[in-house]
Amino acid sequence: MIKVMLVDDHAMVRMGFRMLLAGAQVAGKIEVVAEAGSGEEACRDYPLIKPDVVVMDLSMPGMGGIEAVRRLLAQDPKARVLALSAHEDTAHPRRVMRAGALGYLAKRSAPEALIAAVETVARGERFVDMQTAQALVLAQMEGEASPSDMLSEREFSVFIQLARGMSVAQIASHMSLSPSTVGTHLYHVKQKLGASNQSELTLVALRWGLIQV
């Protein structure tokens, strides 16, 4: 039996995933043992639950999915995370896999793909849905570079949260950093992306599909 923790800030989405995985439960393969509505909750509850697989949405308020993946792996280097995202870009899958996720599944994928992805990640193997894998290969062949590719992991996290409208103080609190450190990251982000304010950063993120309206 594969024990799964579902992490998504939308209760209805978690319910849908739970129902979807119920088909595998009948066969005695998968059991949803816990749910979390944020990355913070996931990091707090993970040591108590010790799931075999964490199914992690990337677009959540607070620290967000990528930072949560990073922190889970810091807690437990053997943690197995399957990242889920509605984003169509190639930056998010690259970032979250670099952060330590074993798998990446686009939410546009067929429902049965979730079960296959969970089973694959539970075995300690990598999984990337076919469409995302093709996009990654094409981007590499064509030398496509999103502005976010110029940022460090910390800078990318700060960039995404700023683009979503969060303040420096809020980001500092969510990332357990000092406001001055976040300010330094913000300065570097603006320099690298050629943006002069938070509104321009939001436009850059929207243009590249890194956030949704």
Protein model, in words:
The protein is an alpha/beta fold and 213 residues long. The protein has two domains: 2-141, Response regulator (Rossmann fold); 147-207, Orthogonal Bundle (Arc Repressor Mutant, subunit A), CATH 1.10.10. Helix content is 54%, strand content 14%. It has ten helices and six strands; from the N terminus they run E-H-E-H-E-H-E-H-E-H-E-H-H-H-H-H. It has helices at residues 11-26, 39-49, 64-75, 91-99, 112-122, 130-142, 153-163, 168-175, 179-193, 198-207, and strands spanning 2-7, 30-36, 53-57, 81-85, 103-106, 127-128. The chain has a six-stranded parallel sheet with strand order 2-1-3-4-5-6, sandwiched between helices. Helix 7 packs across helix 9 (179-193). The radius of gyration is 17 Å and the shape is globular. The N and C termini lie far apart (38 Å). The model has no long low-confidence stretch (mean pLDDT 86).
Tell me briefly what this model is.
This protein is of the alpha/beta class and 213 residues long. It is 54% helix and 14% strand.
Question: What is the radius of gyration computed over CA atoms, rounded to a whole number of angstroms?
Answer: 17 Å
Please describe the biggest sheet, giving its number of strands, its sense, and whether it closes into a barrel.
6 strands, parallel
CATH architecture of the largest domain: 3-Layer(aba) Sandwich
* Secondary structure: number of strands: 6
CATH superfamily of the largest domain: Response regulator
Order of helices and strands: EHEHEHEHEHEHHHHH
Query: What is the average per-residue confidence, as pLDDT, rounded to a whole number?
Result: 86
State the CATH class of the largest domain. Alpha Beta
Structural class: alpha/beta
Stated plainly, the CATH topology of the largest domain is called: Rossmann fold
Number of helices: 10
Give the low-pLDDT segments: none
Binned, the helix content reads 40-55%
Strand order of the largest sheet: 2-1-3-4-5-6
Total number of distinct structural domains: 2
Quote the beta fraction: 5-15%
